[in-house]
């Protein structure tokens, strides 16, 4: 194993000892040697050109650079280009947890490889990753923006993770806000509940409150979609004074009661299938996490409700030749696949779909905070029994009294990833309108 040496006293750079090895650019001079948590998305090495090649590092050992620097533990995904000179992964350090940051590309989904930071004006690499211990588990947070700025919290759905908000996080940070996107408990890099079957949406609310308390935050905007909406609505009902406004993607706030569509839809309806103990486990268990996420993204991007035939499983609806949506790249899929290696897909599925009919004991179900509902016109959810009629009726404002509604033509279930620029405009207009800080 070749050792690395420092060419200069600059603590931000480690250079290779020969032309056979690529250089690693580090954002900090320290990387805690006692860290036990490493992101699973660092396994492959990517060179900038034929001149540079991957550094062979043993992921189980600590390779020190010199007496001046702490050891660098690597259990990694891929090194991507920081500039034309280096193939690199940016690293930051926290209290006791290594905080890794990766370059994913511009808002248009293109790669930053081979482009200089000034040319791309990308800020993806500025997203900081940290872990906070709340309610007995460690939860992963992605964050960008000044700590003194108004806070916008993003809550993902299934099968998403913090990464699904990447475009919006960058946009609000550039507009002067602080963006925070947690991986919900059991998702991505966050720890699962000790007993998944006993975990409820109300526990997500407790986690969010504990996260905010740990960060010293008492006022937020909430942006959520899919199953993250249940958490956002419940949090707003419980703590209305903490919420400056809510942006809901894909579904309105409506009565929190057992979902009637579960009995109105056929047996092959995907939620009915996934609520059945053992059914999804057997279906998903035939594939790796990457394939499961791929299939769900393809299914949920369509305008038709996923319904399987009697002798067909949900994963079989897609079919091998089906392409990814044009706005979701193979690299995006790799991020999901890598991050779901830790949590798996079944924990999130169990929490999301098998607790739908949870009771909350809330007397007043009306949200009086400012709310923006953004709906993709091609989102299959609008075809659920009663949903579209409820949105178009006056009843929708009985449960959200200060509500605005915007439609996105051709928008799918993943409208924030499909049309990020348009969504960002709608989001920023709402934030500016209701930001009193």
Description of the molecule:
It is a single chain. With 437 residues, the chain is of the alpha/beta class. The protein folds into 2 domains: 126 residues, no CATH class; 311 residues, Alpha/Beta hydrolase fold, catalytic domain (Rossmann fold), CATH 3.40.50.1820. It is 26% helix and 16% strand. The strands form 5 sheets. It has an 8-stranded mixed sheet with strand order 9-10-12-11-13-14-15-16, sandwiched between helices. A two-stranded antiparallel sheet has the order 1-2. It starts with 12 loop residues before the first strand and ends with a helix. 40% of the residues are buried.
What structural class do the secondary elements suggest?
A: alpha/beta
Name the CATH superfamily classification of the largest domain: Alpha/Beta hydrolase fold, catalytic domain
- CATH hierarchy, class of the largest domain: Alpha Beta
How many domains? The number is 2
Can you count the helices?
A: 13
Oligomeric state as shown: single chain
Q: Share of helix among residues?
A: 25-40%
Low-confidence parts lasting 5 or more residues at pLDDT below 50?
Answer: 1-122
